[in-house]
Design a protein that fits this description.
Helix Hairpins; alpha+beta; elongated; 13 helices; single chain; 5-stranded mixed β-sheet; Beta-Lactamase
Length: about 450
């Protein structure tokens, strides 16, 4: 674009006006016109000769006009090309600007922290997440300052130094003190690709949640090992006792065989609950959603738990069974039966003899609300957040004698959440407990939409 402009600027004013016509032709035209005019005035030139000269001058003038028009056309084309180039440059600039703004916005809202260091280990770029993870002032200007001056953590300095000198990625765990909390941060330091100057990029990730999940996994393995070990040890001991008492004391042998059967039943129930929990956590694909009469589900659970409650001297009430036969939920039938069964058995287990367990179901907005109320031992408020964890029990001393597996409430919560519902608990120590489960109310239009998405 600059070369044509330089050539154009080198032309003198006459060349610009008469480009395409030689100076000799211009001189001949001017001289001929002057000679003819003087000759005609003084009578030196006859008309035929004057006509020839005028014709010659007309041709030259025509060439001049044509040359000027061609030159104007060429200039307009050149200016048009310049305008197109300028427009394309402007569009490219706008595209780069927009992409840069989008990149900066994404960089600012990243959950992970990112720092970019220059070759002299000064901060070239830092996002808000990195400030939070490193416990830095969010309003302080950090770009251009040395990293060692901003982050006073020896492990970070050592990692940056090794990455700079050795050119190899560095991975390590950093513990950052944030007021009264110590935050574990996973750090990754890499050299920027195709950068020979030694610039580094540092990635930061908060692994608090990951460590919590790992702790829960270890706790779960320990709990399931304990839950399996107890009945297996009992079965082994009873089997050895039966073997010794088979000939000497047949009655004792029969008694211990009954104990073995009880422990096997407990193992079977534990495995069944674990399989149900795995099914609940696998998502909706293993559920069959349809219109479910909640009253029928409650009746099935009552048939299962009534004999146990009567044996313990506990009354189970469902006063509005007939009035609630028309309450329909959009859910899985077996899942609702499992929820009600676990809530009733849990209420019976933690209610003393002579107590009551009351069941009710009602409609609340777009939900079916199922509630199970008891007047048992209750749950302290401090424990209510954890009772839905697997194998967690409020009273550790009642681990084995109450016949529970410790999975019931975890199963209730996971089933309810999978069916787009929720579970609530209200209780105080010694005042009983109320568990409420909300499940979607059946709506034909919603049911068709949900069925199409499965």
């Amino acid at each position: 674009m600059k070369e044509p402009q330089r050539k154009f600027e080198k032309l003198d004013p006459l060349d610009r006006e008469l480009q395409g016509v030689t100076r000799f032709e211009v001189g001949c035209a001017v001289g001929s016109l002057t000679f003819v005019l003087i000759g005609m005035i003084l009578g030196w030139v006859q008309f035929p000769i004057a006509f020839v000269f005028l014709l010659f001058i007309t041709v030259l003038l025509f060439r001049l006009v044509s040359s000027r028009r061609g030159f104007d056309l060429e200039m307009r084309l050149m200016l048009g090309r310049y305008r197109d180039e300028i427009q394309r440059s402007r569009e490219d600039w706008e595209l780069v600007k927009r992409e840069t703004e989008e990149t900066i916005a994404a960089f600012s809202f990243m959950k992970d922290g990112v720092l970019v260091l220059s070759s002299d280990l000064h901060i070239a770029l830092i996002n808000p997440a990195a400030r939070v993870l490193l416990s830095l002032d969010p309003d302080q200007k950090l770009v251009g300052r040395p990293l060692a001056e901003v982050v006073r953590l020896p492990k970070m300095r050592l990692g940056v130094q090794r990455a700079f000198e050795e050119g190899k990625p560095q991975d390590f765990l950093l513990e950052v003190q944030n007021e009264l909390v110590v935050r574990p941060v996973d750090v990754r330091i890499d050299r920027i690709v195709n950068d020979s100057s030694g610039s580094l990029v540092i990635g930061l990730r908060d692994v608090t949640e990951a460590q919590l999940v790992e702790a829960m996994r270890r706790e779960f393995i320990a709990n399931i090992s304990h839950e399996l070990k107890t009945p297996l040890a009992a079965i082994k001991g009873y089997a050895e006792t039966v073997e010794d008492a088979m000939t000497d004391d047949p009655d004792a042998a029969f008694h211990f065989m009954g104990q073995i059967r009880t422990q096997c039943f407990r193992l079977e129930k534990l495995v069944a609950d674990m399989m149900q929990l795995a099914r609940a956590q696998s998502g909706k694909k293993n559920f069959k959603f349809c219109a479910v009469p909640v009253g029928q589900c409650i009746q099935d659970a009552l048939d299962t738990n009534q004999p146990i409650a009567e044996q313990k001297g506990i009354e189970i009430r469902f006063p509005r069974l007939r009035q609630r036969q028309d309450v329909i939920a959009f859910a899985d039938y077996d899942a609702i039966v499992t929820i009600v069964n676990n809530l009733i058995s849990n209420a019976v287990r933690y209610t003393d003899s002579g107590g009551t367990v009351e069941i009710d179901v009602s409609l609340v907005d777009r939900f079916v609300q199922l509630s199970v109320r008891d007047n048992g031992v209750g749950i302290p408020p401090s424990e209510q957040e954890r009772i839905f964890e697997r194998f967690y029990r409020v009273q550790k001393s009642r681990e084995t004698v109450d016949g529970g597996t410790g999975i019931g409430l975890a199963l209730v919560k996971n089933l309810a959440v999978t069916m787009a519902g929720e579970v609530r608990v209200s209780s105080n120590s010694g005042e009983g407990a109320v568990f409420e489960v909300l499940l979607p109310r059946f709506d034909e239009a919603v049911a068709e939409q949900d069925a199409g998405s499965l």
